[in-house]
Amino acid sequence: MLRRIETYSLQPGPDSPVPGAPGAEAPGGDVSGPGAPGPDPPARSVAGRGDGATAFREALGACPRHIPEVLHSAVGRNRSGAPVHLVWEHAFESPEAYRRYMVHPYHATVLDRYILHDSPERVVAGDRLGAGLIGYHCAQPSFRLDGGVRRLVLLRLAADAGPGAVEELGAGLVRVPDDVPGMRVSVMAANTLGSAWFDGVTPITGPPRWTHLWEQGFASEADLAAYRAGPHPVAGVERGGVPAWVRWSGGIVTKASDVWYELERAAP
Amino acid sequence: MVHLVDTVEVDPDRVDRYLEVVRTMAVPVMTDAGASFVSCATTPDDMGEAVTVQTVWGFEDFRQWNDIRKQLVLDPRWYEYGTSAAALRRGGSRRFFTPVAFSPSR
After folding, report:
1. Would the CB atoms of A108 and B92 count as touching at under 8 Å?
2. Cβ <8 Å between A46 and B89
3. For residue range A86-140, what is the model confidence (pLDDT) as tens digits?
4. Coil vs helix vs strand at B57
5. B79: left (phi over 0), alpha (psi -120 to 50) or beta
6. In order of start, what are the domains of chain B with their CATH numbers?
7. Residues of B whose CB is below 8 A from A40
8. Chain B: nearest CA to A88, how far in angstroms?
9. How distant is the alpha carbon of residue A22 from its chain centre?
């Protein structure tokens, strides 16, 4: 199974009044890497930017009705300080299913209308978070969360981190819900889709800014807040920002950031 | 053949610059990626209103478009073209058209 998440910031408009906010990065982080695109030109859709942004959100939500390969689809509104307005999370049963999605007319004619850099109806802005497309391969949908709040902790691991150490780090993060009942989902995985977006398997660009992600799920913002302020050692590490991550992980984690969002109710 | 049709509105005093962007930036980027350059046409620029510029690209099907899209995303020139074109237009639309059976051009 392919788990895929797209984060979007929108060009300024009536329903996207805050195109990014300070504090998106954990202390010591970096949101301006060499691959980060510059600012986008002003919004110029004939439909009006607000209308375009709403239409884009609706198009994402309607995607599974048009492309049945799109599974576990949900649109989320960013509630964090990350420079992101909305998030579209979804999955595919296999790389073959993903490739059918890629060539589906709905993808080209509707979704890309709002996304592609040269489209006159583009509503999205540059990807300052470096998480425009992230995702991973997994055996089952352990990421599943029916409503509530999703949090993505974006991690960059040292290039020389050994597989054993990475596995141990991941196992530690996945076990957090054992002591934090409010955390209903905890998946840590390598961001294998960030550079393999064409066919879901083959990397065609350089390593992504975030090499791994820790995907969390909570029933409510209160549960998320309780975890973040709570006594779990990993919560303490998170409060300490990147320096604490580096110390706690023995230098494996070199950068960290996060985005969290409320999942909108799926259309019937 | 599927046609990608970009229809944009441009202020009359910007039309020449917009067309130059299409000619010198869009055409090489799009054709290098595998699209056909079908046409570029404008409404009159002396009617006291914004000029509509319609640019049409062609490709066989959405499978080929996916390959073209990949090449565009990987081409830095595509981003320069998109930024330059956006700065010169008021707004516009993008639609994909498939000629009907009785169309003389298919």
Report:
1. no
2. no
3. 999 999 999 999 999 999 999 999 999 999 999 999 999 999 999 999 999 999 9
4. strand
5. alpha
6. 2-97 (3.30.70.100)
7. 83, 86
8. 20
9. 18
Rounded Cα distance between A124 and A155, Å, is 24
- Is ipTM beyond 0.95? yes
Closest residue in chain A to residue B63, using alpha carbons only: A103
Of A112, A119, A198, which is closest to B70 when you measure between CB atoms? A198
pLDDT tens digits, A44-101: 333 344 589 999 999 999 999 999 999 999 999 999 999 999 999 999 999 999 999 9
B62/A108 touch (CB, cutoff 8 Å), yes or no: yes
Query: What residue ranges define each of the domains in chain A, with the CATH number in brackets?
Result: 2-22+32-263 (3.30.70.100)
pTM of the model: 0.89
Nearest to residue A44, comparing CAs of A122, A151, A150? A122
Mutate to test the interface with B, among A6, A11, A44, A66 (most CBs of B within 10 A): A44
DSSP symbols for chain A: -EEEEEEE-B-SBTTB--S--TT-BPTT--S--TT---PPPPP--TT-HHHHHHHHHHHHHHHHHH-TT-EEEEEEEE-SSSS-SEEEEEEESSHHHHHHHHT-HHIIIIIGGGTSTT-TT--B---SSS-SEEEEE-SS-TT--SSSEEEEEEEEE-TT--HHHHHHHHHHHHTGGGT-TTEEEEEEEE--STT-TTTSSS--SS--S--EEEEEEESSHHHHHHHHHSS-HHHHHHHTHHHHHHHHTTT-EEEEEEEEEEEPPPP-
CB atoms under 10 Å from CB of A265, counted, come to 10
